[in-house]
From TrEMBL:
<keyword id="KW-0812">Transmembrane</keyword>
<dbReference type="GO" id="GO:0003825">
    <property type="term" value="F:alpha,alpha-trehalose-phosphate synthase (UDP-forming) activity"/>
</dbReference>
<protein>
    <submittedName>
        <fullName>Trehalose 6-phosphate synthase</fullName>
    </submittedName>
</protein>
<comment type="similarity">
    <text>Belongs to the glycosyltransferase 20 family.</text>
</comment>
<dbReference type="GO" id="GO:0005992">
    <property type="term" value="P:trehalose biosynthetic process"/>
</dbReference>
<keyword id="KW-0472">Membrane</keyword>
<keyword id="KW-1133">Transmembrane helix</keyword>
């Protein structure tokens, strides 16, 4: 945390994202505060807590000024206020056009190879512009007369914001971090507004992705579409006398050191038996998956691998249960509504085929879980499955590793995640290959304790060395150096 503060060097931090870190919802007279299921929120929250900056986000709750102390601008976390949350409120049409429409029916499937066709509507595009402008106005207001603001814009909801901001605040250091993959130039070219999106992004001084492969795809896309100088040696783009560096910064979680955590006094075995009791099922081996119910996550493929395991290794019938924690998500989008039904049907089909007595192969917990609840499942499970069809990073993989202070448990990880580039000691799978994924489950269940501990120790070391503070420190450090270089060029 000190490392990040040093990199900021006295400059104030402004973070922008669509998703807010805390949502206030009112039920009758009570206000509930929840943390939304979002890898982005998990990653950024510790940074804001350490740096006391301002986080500008879309207000998604329904609590009003009377029930939440200060409606638009408040101090959070609720129990230990450290930074400012500035909320931007959107009307139903704005939210549908900008968020559900352009961001999630257009850009999300455009950037993920999950074979869902993107939908581009002109009206969504117009709302996307309008909402980006609304965020730019709020940022300019928040930044006020701040002399050296550092602005970290997050994700595909705000491709136009870097340029809008730089035009009004040329002295601001602006980075945008793209949390999802960037496709190849040919795939990206189907977007009718590809030029405008690239132009907006190139307003930033620094454009970050999780992997070098995504940086390369971005550089190729710019090369194909715009008149710009693309420097493949130093990974920057120069256009209209402005330079944008394009670099990888693999995001991470908060694992700091192996310090004693009282909650870990409970052994995996004890945690397992209490969880099974609560769930009212009997099983010897547990697997866990934690995802938003999103078609990019490979949830159906994962269930089919469990089915195949039970076919290939009948000894696991009556013994192995897979618990899927599935947070409902983006429920105003048809593809998500349909997918939710597909997932439920698949669980029912597989359970009907194998279940007996108090045992069943799959438990589907289709609701939001708190961080603490999820930790219990991580600690209780013999294995965790992350089988995304395509994923920028996937922080569930790193959270599972962070939770296993006991150096037990096996991670099964899709090769199509950014995390697979770092966590070489996971069992790496192609989720489209159901039989091999079933074999990976068998391998995990049969792995001896010393191999398991060796693998987990190495993965924990890798996450600790490259934790979220390292991510933010590198991003902010790079952003400062980019500006300095640029200033020198201008002077000479
Ligand atoms: C991904 C995106 C985030 C987003 C999260 C949850 O991780 O990169 O920007 O917050 O999904 O999705 P939601 O639409 O609920 O914010």
């Amino acid at each position: 945390a000190d490392h990040v503060r040093n990199k900021l060097n006295g400059s104030s931090l402004f973070v922008v994202s669509n998703r807010e870190p805390y949502t206030h919802t009112r039920q009758d007279k009570r206000v509930n505060v929840t943390v939304p299921a979002s890898g982005l929120v998990t990653a950024l929250e510790p940074i804001l807590r350490a740096c006391h900056g301002t986080w500008v986000a879309h207000g998604s709750g329904n609590a009003d000024a009377e029930t939440v102390d200060i409606h638009d601008r408040l101090k959070v976390p609720p129990d230990d206020p450290r930074y400012t949350l500035r909320r931007i409120w959107l009307g139903r049409e704005e939210e549908d056009g900008y968020y559900n429409g352009f961001a999630n029916e257009g850009l999300w499937p455009l950037c993920h190879i999950a074979h869902t066709r993107p939908i581009f509507r002109t009206s969504d595009w117009e709302y996307y512009n309008k909402v980006n402008k609304k965020f730019a106005d709020a940022l300019v207001e928040e930044i006020g007369s701040e002399e050296h603001p550092t602005v970290l814009i997050q994700d595909y909801h705000f491709a136009l914001l870097p340029r809008m901001l730089k035009e009004r605040l040329p002295h601001a250091r602006v980075a945008i971090f793209w949390h999802i993959p960037w496709p190849n130039a040919e795939s990206f070219s189907i977007c009718p507004w590809q030029r405008e999106l690239l132009d907006g992004l190139l307003g930033a001084d620094l454009i970050g992705f999780h992997t070098q492969a995504h940086c390369n795809n971005f550089l190729h896309t710019v090369d194909h579409v715009l008149e710009a100088k693309v420097d493949w040696e130093h990974f920057f783009i120069e256009r209209n006398q402005h330079r944008s560096s394009v670099l990888p910064f693999p995001i991470s979680v908060e694992l700091v050191e192996d310090r004693f955590d009282a909650r870990n006094e409970i052994s995996a075995e004890e945690e397992r038996s209490t969880l099974l009791l609560e769930l009212g099922i009997e099983a010897t081996f547990l697997g866990v998956g934690v995802d938003r119910v999103d078609y990019t996550k490979g949830i159906l493929e994962r269930f089919r691998a469990v089915e195949s395991l039970l076919e290939r290794y009948p000894k696991y019938q009556g013994k192995f249960t897979f618990i899927q924690i599935g947070a409902p998500t983006r429920s105003r989008i048809k593809r998500y509504v349909d997918f939710q039904v597909e997932v439920k049907n698949e669980v029912e089909r597989i359970n009907a085929r194998f279940k007996r007595g108090k045992w069943k192969p799959i438990v589907f917990q289709n609701r939001e879980h708190t961080h603490q609840e999820v930790q219990r499942y991580y600690r209780a499970a013999h294995l965790c499955m992350v089988t995304s069809l395509h994923d920028g990073m996937n922080l569930v993989a790193k959270e599972y590793v962070a939770a296993r202070q006991d150096e037990r448990g096996v991670l099964i990880l899709s090769r199509f995640t950014g995390a697979a580039r770092e966590l070489h000691d996971a069992i790496i799978v192609n989720p489209y290959d159901v039989e091999s994924t079933a074999e990976a489950i068998a391998q995990a269940l049969e792995m001896n304790v010393s191999e398991m501990a060796d693998r987990m120790r190495r993965m924990r070391r890798s996450v600790m060395e490259h934790n979220i503070y390292w991510w933010a420190g590198s991003l902010i450090g790079q952003l400062c150096s980019v500006r300095l270089r640029q200033n020198r060029t201008n002077i000479s």
